[in-house]
Design goal:
173 residues, alpha/beta, six-stranded mixed β-sheet, two-stranded antiparallel sheet, 8 strands, 41% helix
């Protein structure tokens, strides 16, 4: 009986160790910036048909918020991104929202305006989301002045200090 209990305890300890390793690897993957890959250029229109391109933002730090109108986590995050945008409006920081994976009748620009979010909204961003490897919402991409992706986040906590730290990093370069 004692040997059975030892085997169960040993198995539990091994499983706990593996679980801890996997969880810490996931946390580290989100916190660590990618190997400074170049951001892919793209051009998308806003709701009025005005084009916006990443290439035109050369030399400026850019935050891209990939989202969808139906996403509750996006709705939760957006007030935090808006606070950061407003706090940095006297800088050259560019913060845009790219709507993708939408229902046909969706009106992303109106939804953000109704939520009190003043971020520029680009629509029909499915191809750009694919280009950036975005799998889900919300996904926020931080691009430095050199055009390198320095961090990708799926944080939905509007008060996460990591978001402010990432923007401070972009502005300090």
């Amino acid at each position: 009986m004692l040997s059975v209990i030892r085997k169960i305890t040993r198995g539990f300890i091994i499983m706990l160790g593996l679980f801890t390793f996997v969880m810490s690897a996931n946390i580290s993957a989100e916190q660590a910036p990618p190997k400074f890959s170049k951001a892919n250029d793209f051009t998308l229109n806003d709701a009025s048909g005005t084009p916006w391109s990443l290439k035109a933002m050369a030399g400026k730090p850019v935050v891209i918020h990939f989202w969808a109108t139906w996403c509750p986590y996006c709705k939760k995050l957006q007030p935090g991104l808006e606070r950061i945008r407003i706090a940095n409006q006297d800088t050259d920081l560019q913060m845009i929202a790219i709507s993708f994976n939408e229902d046909e009748a969706a009106t992303p620009a109106k939804v953000l305006t109704d939520r009190g979010i003043g971020m520029k909204t680009l629509i029909e961003g499915d191809k750009v989301a694919q280009l950036y490897g975005v799998k889900g919402t919300p996904t926020t991409v931080f691009i430095n002045r050199a055009g390198d992706i320095v961090w990708v986040s799926q944080i939905s906590d509007p008060d996460s200090p990591k978001l402010t730290q990432a923007v401070e990093y972009l502005l300090s370069e």
